[in-house]
Amino acid sequence: MTHGWRQVHALPYSRSMELQDTIRTTFAARDFTDEELTDETLYDILDVARFAPSGGNRQGWKVLVIRSQETRRQLADLCMPTVRRYVAEMRAGESPWNTVVPSSVTDEEAEATEVAWPMLDEIDKVQVVLVVAVDLSVLACFDKDLERVGIIGGASIYPFVWNILLAARDRGYGGTITTFLTGQEPAAREVLGLPENYAVAALVPLGRPVKQLTKLRRNPVEEFACFDRWDGDPLVR
Asked: Are the beta carbons of 176 and 79 closer than 8 angstroms?
């Protein structure tokens, strides 16, 4: 087939069940065995993940592999104020940290909230922790002038983070995307030595999950896809 001046050779479509299984079963793993995740395996995971798309193919990501127990504990401690407010707002029946409906939870109430968060409490037991940062100077943030929180820049970093989890799942490992650390980004920048133009996008624990989930609960396509307008007919089979 021809598109404008460029000739494009159509490839035959073949459905990869292995790929579909990986996508459908990549879950948020937070409980891990003590099985080692070697640097070689981690390299292989990142070697696959690096083929994620990014705006202008600028690939503004940087991955910090946190093996140091001291650094992990510092990062976990930095996450806790954000976690406490998250839990406090959730207990108040709110959607935590949303930018539309103001929270009724005071700073004092959030700070006094007692939280048990096993993944952070036991962060020293995880095989490896990744901090994924992104270079803000290469992100095309088309929503930067809108009067709402910016989200467009995430399109150039979170596909890469998700690719890490897909590649890990393909090898029998797992993890989860956490973003609590960003709530204390200036302090995290000090701990990690991040340049000022880099933002913390995610903290990702990786290891061999204690239990491999295979059935995930997600809304059907009909509930989120419609034709032409917000009130359009739903997409169905």
From this structure: no
